[in-house]
Amino acid sequence: MDLRKIVGHRTLIQCAASAIVIDEKGRLLLGRRTDNHLWGYSGGSCEIDEKAEDCAGRELFEEMGIIADELTFFMVNSGPETHYVYPNGDEVSNFEIIYLCTKYHGEPVAQPEEIEALSFFDPSEISMEMISPPIRPVMEKYLNSIHKA
Length: 149
Hints:
By secondary structure, the chain is an alpha+beta fold. It is built from three helices and eight strands. Strands 1, 2, 3, 4, 5, 6, 7 and 8 form an eight-stranded mixed β-sheet that branches. Strand 2 (28-33) and strand 3 form a beta hairpin. The longest helix has 13 residues, at 52-64. The termini are far apart.
């Protein structure tokens, strides 16, 4: 936020880490964002000197109330398809490291400033139209990977 005071809405490279939570039934925990009202997994910007895996765990707890017991690297999401303009006009080019989380504890609780609802979705219920644009390539890759398994 301090940097935004200096650069305004201009494009920033946003280094982020995220976690896709998968329950024992294979369902994904998604949150409906308060800014664009679309669904996504937890994630956010890395702090200075923060390890990506620690960032993914911190964001998961902050946004969804879940504590990750184990995170497994899934993929890096970057490139022109991750360029995004937020509803407030802030523009980013995302470089996001995504982890899968199948071992966790705690009860899902939405952080009301960022997440207006939380729900577990069976993969068959997920369409790309419901997913926040910069993470659609990740969701497509994940859903394709489980259909091939």
